[in-house]
Amino acid sequence: MNKAIRSDILDLKYIKEYFSEDQHFTIELIEGYLSDTIPKVDILEKNLINLDYDEVKNISHFFKPSFSLMGINCLQEIIDLEKLAENKAPKNEIYKRINFIIPICRESILEYKRILNKIKTI
Description:
The chain is mainly alpha-helical and 122 residues long. Helix content is 75%, strand content 0%. The protein has helices at 13-19, 23-46, 53-70, 75-86, 91-120.
């Protein structure tokens, strides 16, 4: 990945450190992140209407390693959300976390789309 690619909202440290030499793999990694994350964020958002504790727990668990690798700045909130869902915490606590996480997820998706477009033009 080109060293000139930067982000003010993502921590690109791991991607640059481990994948910067392999542009093809970096593209695949970002495309995989987007294809996995977009539908799961939509499902997580639907849980604001009809809360399913198991679904929220499973999505949170799924997000932990990818958010860590991809430098999404709400990893602790995801960890907390998973624990809250596992313990069937009051709905308002779950909703509060989901409402915090979703905008960050959506912003990361837009940012990775921008980065992907930039990488593909290099």
